[in-house]
Specification:
- It is a single chain.
- The longest helix is centred in the first third of the chain and has 50 residues.
- The protein has one domain.
- The protein is mainly alpha-helical and 167 residues long.
- The protein has five helices and no strands.
Amino acid sequence: MYQERYWKELYQLKVHLNYLEIYLQDSEFKVKAIGIFLAVASSSSIAGWAIWQSQAFIWGTIIAASQVMGVVNSFLPYASRMKLLPGLIHELEEIAITTEKNWFKVSEGKLTEEEIHQLQFDVRSKKTKALKKHLDNNTLPEKAALLSRAQVSADIYFNNFYPVEEK
């Protein structure tokens, strides 16, 4: 029972770590996409307006949209999350490595149930401290699609390194 709980803790930690990495990539993509849109919209709209003055309304709308997006962009959380997540990811990677290293002792029955229980709660404690340290009062909304990708990635990882042996 305690071995299974420790395994689940390790699995959840890996999923959480994968989720944060995927979330960071998603945030980076959104920041770049917004930046590219703003750059292209601003520069091409002015040029387009000058060339095709008969379509001034369309070009004016594009310019206005880019101006609104520029203002709204400062209120979007993606850029700030990009600053917070790398440190958290690094710290959780270190915790995950230690947790996985300890899995050998747990899986081989070299530890008592009490020792396994203590290891499990040490992992939780370190994870909680890392979250508080790096995210402070910020939260990350759960995105089902990203979480699903994180679970698939964890499954692949554990199937590669800890395949279930057929009897």
